[in-house]
Design a protein that fits this description.
The structure is a homodimer. The radius of gyration of chain A is 26 Å and the shape is globular. Among the domains of chain A are: about 1-95, Ubiquitin-like (UB roll); about 115-190, Ubiquitin-like (UB roll) (Roll); about 345-390 and about 495-600, ATPase, nucleotide binding domain (Nucleotidyltransferase, domain 5, 2-Layer Sandwich); about 390-485, no CATH class. The first copy, chain A, has a six-stranded mixed β-sheet, with helices on both faces. A six-stranded mixed β-sheet of chain A has the order 26-25-16-17-18-27, sandwiched between helices. Chain A has a five-stranded mixed β-sheet with strand order 2-1-5-3-4. Helix content of chain A is about 30%, strand content about 25%. Chain A is an alpha/beta fold.
Chain lengths: ~600, ~600
């Protein structure tokens, strides 16, 4: 066994000598760019050896790497195996995620039945004896291939005519078969592959995947900040911003679309493919993000009774919103369940079918809003709860996002407080998973009581400005030279957040008539959920106590579901059926919510 | 009986005292603006009495006309009846047609089955107990009215949500019912009427009609010059212009769309209706105009074998080409038959079914290109022939369009040559119908021989610059003070034009296996065809000799057909079936064409 250290993000994993570095990094939760999926042809998964010994350079690497890169120690992660403990430096271009972001969830196998399919055309040129119009000519070949006649907008029909003539009457058409008609999506060079885009529009982060529609392989992925953050940290403040003017609403849409266009441009440059080959997209997000993205009105999402303008699945041309994919590319958004339970949760429900088909499930997608569903004997009930941004480090005195220098684990042994930071750097602040373990340890050490009060007799608890705080890292050991502390206010933020989640879980379990012991699978989705220490979360009462092995920390399940829907019309239908079956509980008017919420705020 | 003289266009008609002036003007071929259809509420059909006596002023007129207008002699044509011979001055604003233009053909009755229908909605507002999305809420009412679920682009779905909320959940929806889906076209105030636009895109003129989709009434109409004339007199030169750059092609489209937008704006201002109410449009034109309008490539129309990019019927959103109708308005273009037999001819074929259903028909739509069809025992064969612009006065030494001062009739009695001009003004030039009667009379008077030579012994034939010419009007009687002449060159132009038409007719009759005597109805369409003197045309050999009563000069049959298709989906289907049945003869490769053409150039 060898220990592989990954810098500068500071992840460590122990692997056997048969594990290549790309796989090792993936297991450590580091998503290296790997456009070709690990077969050595794309040259994107570069790493630089800092210390230790790797397997010999392969011919593939010699081909893909320049001599000066080889001299500097560069290798392709998919080609190299550790022969000793090694320390690797990951160059920024090999990291699709500038911050630690969960863009990958667990995936599973299913049949690929894409919405848009290729069709190779080879036509006879017109002659004076064969005066059929270009479209009529193409349609005959389309009919011979067993498809319904082409339909497209004028731009596409013009393109069909021009490209067929320029390409000497040969082309790959991308078509979307529907009953009685085949939507023309793209006219490409002969033998072109078709690509698709899957997107999870998180309130904070956008996860974007480029997928091969034939093989199902994810060719590229990236996570970028949601550019709307400049206009409001949470969706409520963005809705208020949008409601001030049509221009504001349009701006929120444009900024989103621009971010996707930029990512697509980078993907295409990196993989040397054409945007014209991207013929389909699936986009998921909460209902507000869904409406922002589609340019739908959001006034009614900002005031009771919080009703969506559109909840059913939507499909439209990418060009309608300025998304630069292929000329006639489609965009699909699955059904929203309610004003605060969006298509991203529908997507999560879809992925639960991979982990626990037919089982009793509680699915929790933790974010600024946390959406929860309970599934039992075919019944689905969902709710949304405002867990707030505390788990992303916001509203916490020394909180920060999960970036280098963030404390992500805390251990308390007697007087000793030990912290682990991302990237093994000097502590800068504390991220969501860090504060959760901190509170759990403080509870265990008796520094914190069940009501959330700091025990003032503890030597590390002090009073500043009349408020008590726990010194996590003294100034001497921090990056800033300031003490890093956890305040009573921080504890309250976490109490509110975890209390809201727990209350939602309890109410949904009541609604479907189960208790925690009956839950066969707990699906914990979302970036924070992936890095969450389950033991801490249970000790704090965020989740009911349950066997650890029943928990599945599935990462960005919404993104995984989006990819499934991109690759399979069957999955789209399955998602629609799930959304249609899902009942919705509005917690704000639920009789026992306040009582459950207050109860759930206590620790333990 | 009273004689009504209409100035300044110089038309005269004899009517009985029960005929109002609007009807009188219409019978004389003068289309006064009459937005309300003659019921006295729009005040648009103003005329000014110059001489004679009219019935007493009605209360309606006193209401609609200002005192100073009444003092100046203004009346509403729909309200006034002639009590003596009268001379009326028609102010420019009452004339939709700045030149004499045929925008109206004969119309006939048929069942109105519009493509877009209204649906009144009255919905319950959402409550905390009824959290259905806006679209879901609307769709339930749509289903209760027996329609399939709404489908629209994002802009329309946004509009639906906003308008419903602003209008307190009441609205008139305009929807296009299709199998399984209702396209959302417009969200209007409750109890709004739906309007449609019918357009004939002539190479020279655009005829534009605003139609009430419920009653079928034509609310307004206009004829404007085709703005593309600046870029080429005929479609061949415009195709060459378009082929020089994408920008040129786009410009030709934009200029057309701008002209329509302007006309629509004027209609709406005049009738005090909203463009949002215009929910459907039918546009016909020759294949080149069709492609220009749709932005389709035209390279292939400019070179053999002259193949259309698209020949099948097209339907798309008006917004796709920047046509400013209702937000989701549709535009329908019927099928083209061939590269030089377009949807305007399909529209003419449709109208032949009104005049002579099931009969043996020859339909001739005369223009710069003349399209001809022969219909016999269910068989339809069509061709196009380059008759050139001579009939519109172009390429004729003293030719002009049918505008005031144009000679439109010529009579030769012995030495006397008498001319009638449009507007009874001093002769300025000669228009198409004028030159045809001139040649016919010259042939009868022996000034012209059968081969087209001017008989030099005639005193009115002289030789200038070595070429013979016939003096039609001496300088002393013309507006310019120059002689108006008909040259040998002019005669040749007419020979080529009428020879091409006659050759086409002969070949098509051969193809369907009939002779002229078997033709039960001759449909002569197009502006020129309406003013054409049939006797002259037959004497010159433009048409075979046939009983005059079998000829129907139907005016702008293409425009009439467009209106029918606007009002009836059944008519659209009928037009598609006719186009699909129509065989096409390419005259340029037809074995006997040259022979027939040369034969047909002779007179008599």
């Amino acid at each position: 066994m060898s220990i592989v250290d990954l810098e500068p993000i500071g992840r460590r994993i122990e692997v056997d000598p048969d594990t290549d570095l790309l796989t090792a990094a993936q297991r450590a939760g580091v998503d290296l760019v790997s456009a070709c999926g690990g077969v050595g042809i794309c040259g994107t998964c570069r790493v630089c050896l800092v210390r230790g010994t790797l397997s010999a350079m392969t011919l593939v690497e010699e081909d893909q790497l320049r001599p000066e890169e080889i001299e500097q120690g560069y290798r392709l992660a998919c080609q190299a195996y550790p022969l000793s403990d090694v320390r690797l430096e990951i160059p920024p271009e090999s990291l699709p995620v500038p911050q630690k972001m969960q863009v990958d969830g667990r995936e599973s196998e299913f049949e690929i039945v894409p919405n848009v399919v290729p069709l190779e055309l080879n036509l006879a040129a017109p002659t004076i004896e064969d005066l059929r119009a270009d479209l009529t000519r193409a349609n005959q070949a389309v009919a011979e291939a067993g498809h319904a006649p082409l339909q497209g907008d004028l731009g596409q029909l013009a393109q069909l005519s021009q490209q067929l003539r320029r390409q000497n009457w040969a082309a790959t058409l991308a078509i979307r078969p529907r009953p009685g008609v085949s939507d023309l999506v793209a006219v490409l060079l002969p033998n072109s592959g078709l690509l698709g885009l899957a997107v999870d529009l998180g309130s904070t982060k956008l996860a974007i995947y480029l997928v091969d529609l034939h093989s199902g392989a994810t060719l590229a992925k990236t996570g970028v900040m949601n550019p709307q953050i400049s206009y409001g940290e949470d969706v409520v403040s963005r809705i208020a911003f949008a409601n001030r003017s049509e221009a504001n609403r349009k701006l929120l849409q444009t900024r989103l679309v621009d971010s996707l266009n930029q990512a697509v441009g980078e993907f295409c440059a990196q993989l040397k493919v054409s945007t014209a080959q991207i013929v389909d997209a699936v986009v998921v997000g909460n209902t507000a993000m869904h409406h922002f993205f589609c340019g739908l009105p959001v006034e009614q999402l900002g005031a009771a009774p919080y009703v969506a303008a559109v909840s059913q699945p939507l499909e439209f041309r990418a060009s309608e919103i300025g998304l630069d994919l292929g000329l006639g590319a489609w965009v699909y958004l699955p059904a929203n369940i309610a004003g605060y339970v969006g298509g991203d949760h529908t997507s999560v429900l879809l992925t639960t079918q991979l982990y626990a088909p037919g089982k009793t499930v509680v699915a929790v997608d933790i974010g600024t809003n946390t959406e929860i569903s309970a599934i039992h004997q075919g019944k689905i009930v969902s709710c949304s709860t405002a867990s707030g941004p505390a788990f992303e480090g916001a509203h916490i005195r020394d909180g920060m996002r999960a970036a280098p220098g963030a404390i992500e684990r805390v251990y308390i042994h007697g007087d000793q407080v030990q912290v682990l930071t991302i990237g093994e750097q000097p502590p800068v602040g504390i991220c969501g998973s860090g504060i959760l373990t901190a509170l759990s340890e403080m509870l265990g050490a008796g520094v914190l009581d069940e009501r959330g009060a700091l025990v003032k007799s503890d030597p590390r608890v002090r009073v500043a400005n009349g408020k008590s705080e726990f010194v996590l890292v003294p100034a001497s050991k921090t990056a800033s030279g300031r003490d890093l502390v956890i305040t009573r206010g921080d504890v309250n933020e976490i109490q509110l957040a975890k209390g809201a989640i727990r209350a939602g879980i309890e109410i949904l379990m009541d609604e479907v008539g189960i208790n925690a012991a009956q839950v066969e699978a707990w699906i914990i989705a979302g970036a924070f959920g992936t890095y969450l220490d389950l033991t801490s979360a249970m000790r704090l009462g965020m989740f009911p106590t349950a066997p650890l092995e029943r928990f599945h920390q599935v990462g960005n399940a919404a993104g995984v579901g989006a990819k499934q829907m991109l690759l399979s019309r069957t999955k789209r239908q399955e998602a629609s059926d799930l959304a249609a079956r899902a009942g919705y509980i509005e917690l704000t008017i639920y009789p026992e919510f306040t009582e459950k919420f207050v109860e759930s705020m206590y620790f333990g």
